[in-house]
Write a structure and sequence with these properties.
binds zinc ion, about 450 residues, 12 helices, GMP Synthetase, Chain A, domain 3, Rossmann fold, alpha/beta
Length: about 450
């Protein structure tokens, strides 16, 4: 990565970055060193860092006091792997119930400002987490690492089609930003970035992409699938496109192949979550995913809670190494992964062969269009005590809203939910609410999807 931003007038080369950028680059430099460390050394450092988080949680986060003591933790000690495995897993349900008890009562100034992040993950269970500025710095350093690994030319145009708030990057024009985002722009002069809201239907997206002619396209796999079908039918490509970057959902082998055939470029995927930031990046050499071991400690557990061996698939349980505002210790995301093998690229970061996270259907509109349903990002719990949600589109006019709630909702709460959901769907569908106890029904394959289009194809 070429560093071209200098903060000192009169000095352009070598560039002298400002203090924050210098920190970012210092992280990136360290990442390059530790990603090739001997196996075992990384884990030692992770446990050293996690000991500080656990100690902070024991002192200042009421939720953890008892569970850490029961796991044998006492103040000021060094955490071992065995001890870590005795700490009970933190579930999304714990996070929903314990949003106050999980907040740190003391947050030293050096960790910076606190921000809120919302997510429904792959299980339709909305949660809210707090993150610190230091945590955000690690997030940005990993974003730069992703660009660096894949050798991206950041002077090209980046076009992103993603879920944004209404009024931001509305179709058909979208919006243009001067650069690729705070991490890249801190380091170098990037090309522009074009943004289009996912509320655009596929035809509008295709027209927009033709006009933008980007070097890179960023979007969600389910949306990409609909775009590829369109480009395939039109026998059309996007000249100048170097790669498609995907986030947010599971990428299938079939989608990778289709992208190569239709657009002539590869998919470069990242596995991240709003709660934890970057968890793993796709390796540019092998296609496996490398865990971002400097910011998260990842376990893959079998049904008995024991670690899976390479080739085995289990539940993903993750510790955030730098979130002092709301420590996430052994947090179960609700996703599954297959443990990978040592990688031909020479990096010794832990590997995941495959990640099975969120899958999504596209919403079908009465006019014949399709769009990506943004229902996963809504602040459900600010409106009503929603524990789990799922939506099933039964026809071009009917959507069933399945809910598990803590108590019976009032008529006002239900109508507020209806208003919020209708706005997110972008069409006045007839909404039918259905309430369930405890769990939502799962299909025979066990794969939960927060939005299901049940209209037969064709
Ligand atoms: Zn690799």
């Amino acid at each position: 990565m070429r560093i071209t931003k200098s903060s000192v007038p009169g000095v352009v080369w070598p560039a002298l970055p400002d203090a924050r950028t210098a920190r970012l680059l210092a992280l990136l430099w360290q990442f390059e060193q530790c990603e090739c460390w001997p196996i075992g050394e990384t884990l030692d450092h992770q446990l050293r860092q996690l000991s500080l988080i656990v100690d902070h949680a024991w002192r200042h986060v009421p939720f953890y006091r008892e569970r850490l003591e029961m796991a044998g933790w006492s103040a000021g000690q060094m955490l071992t792997l065995e001890q870590l495995r005795r700490i009970p897993v933190l579930t999304r349900r714990d996070l929903q119930d314990g949003v106050i008890a999980l907040r740190s009562t003391v947050l030293p100034q050096q960790f910076g400002d606190v921000r809120e992040s919302r997510s429904s993950g792959s299980t339709g269970q909305p949660v809210l987490v707090l993150r610190t500025a230091i945590d955000g710095l690690l997030w940005q350093a990993n974003a730069l690492r992703d660009h660096q690994w894949h050798g991206r030319d950041q002077t090209l145009k980046l076009a992103a089609i993603r879920a944004v708030a209404p009024g931001v990057a509305d179709p058909p024009q979208g919006a243009i930003a001067a650069g690729w985002g705070p991490a890249s722009e801190a380091v170098c002069a990037t090309g522009p970035a074009a943004l289009l809201s996912l509320s655009a239907d596929i035809n509008t997206q295709v027209d927009w992409l033709r006009r933008q002619a980007p070097g890179y396209l960023l979007t969600y796999p389910s949306n990409l699938m609909a775009l590829l079908d369109h480009f395939e039918a039109a026998r059309e490509r996007l000249p100048g496109l170097r790669a498609v970057l995907t986030v947010g959902e599971t990428v299938s082998l079939r989608l990778r192949q289709q992208c190569r055939e239709v657009l002539g470029v590869d998919i470069e995927d990242v596995y991240s979550s709003q709660e934890l930031g970057y968890i793993a990046l796709q390796c540019p050499v092998s296609g496996q995913y490398h865990v971002m071991a400097e910011s998260v400690l990842v376990e893959v557990l079998d049904a008995k809670g024991q670690p899976c061996a390479p080739g085995e698939t289990g539940r993903l349980v993750v510790c955030s190494l730098h979130n002092h505002a709301m420590p996430l210790i052994r947090y179960e995301l609700g996703d599954y992964a297959t443990v990978g093998h040592s990688c031909a690229c020479g990096r010794t970061l832990p590997t995941l062969e495959r990640i099975a996270g969120r899958e999504r259907n596209m919403l079908r509109l009465p006019g014949g269009g399709q769009r990506w349903p943004t229902v996963g990002l809504l602040p459900y719990r600010e409106v009503a005590p929603v524990r789990r949600f799922q939506m099933i589109q039964h026809s071009l006019e009917d959507v069933e809203v399945r809910l598990v709630t803590d108590r019976v909702l009032s008529a006002t709460e239900e109508s507020q939910l209806a208003r919020m959901i209708t706005e997110a769907l972008g069409h006045p569908f007839r909404l039918q609410f259905a309430y369930f106890e405890g769990e939502l029904p799962r299909p025979a394959n066990g794969k939960f999807e927060e939005f299901v289009c049940a209209i037969p194809a064709g």
